[in-house]
Amino acid sequence: MKTSLLASALAAVALAAFPVAAQASATGSVLTFTPAPEPSEMVPGEPSEAPSEGPSEGPSEGPSEGAAAVPFGPGCRKLPETGPGSPVEIAKEKVATAVEQSPELSQLAEALKKSELVEQLNSADGVTVFAPTNEAFSALSQDVKDKLNSDPAQLKKVLTYHVVSGKVKPSELQSGSLETLEGGKLTVKQENGEYTVNDAKIVCGNLPTANAVIYLVDKVLVPPQ
Length: 225
Known about the structure:
Blueprint: H1 2-17, E1 20-27, E2 30-35, H2 87-90, H3 95-101, H4 106-114, H5 118-122, E3 127-132, H6 134-138, H7 142-150, H8 152-160, E4 163-165, E5 175-179, E6 185-191, E7 194-197, E8 200-208, E9 212-217
Parallel strand pairs: 3-9
Antiparallel strand pairs: 1-2, 3-4, 5-6, 6-7, 7-8, 8-9
Helix pairs in contact: 3-4, 7-8
InterPro entries: Adhesion/Biosynth-related, FAS1_dom_sf, FAS1_domain
Pfam families: Fasciclin (PF02469)
Domain FAS1: 92-221
């Protein structure tokens, strides 16, 4: 018993004399302690936490702007993730060419060709296109479709009503009006997280192209008479 008490006392003295690390390892009945490094031995500047992940590059439900801007809206899920028509490929093309590549905008692409607007839009230095989806064109009555197909001037008037000079940011769609290339105005607003242009909803917005930005809408916009 005296031997055990003496050994414990000696161990306590040794611990008080030498700083130790918080961990100890057991080998049989003997405890081996690792002395803690002196301050001069520590490596300065090492991060205590793992680096945070970068921003997501996929479509989001809410709009964002700046270098990290990404498309937003539920309709963005219909866009291809890669290849022609995907946000990455659209960003490389002039706007009319980007529309032609998008599976969701094939009817708009055909209308742009009929109205001879492809070259004008591709040569524009910064425009915004509120692009009706195929579903939007399909919702038009047959009578309206026939009139537009038989009258290129009227078709051009309707299509230029969907184009605004300059690259419109989501923050500029909160409330107000935008002047179109047709000469009329579009009423824009944001309510309960939903963006509208006149009475059309933006289903996928903030799609950049090489010279423009595209907002997909669920209705064909009709200019005032």
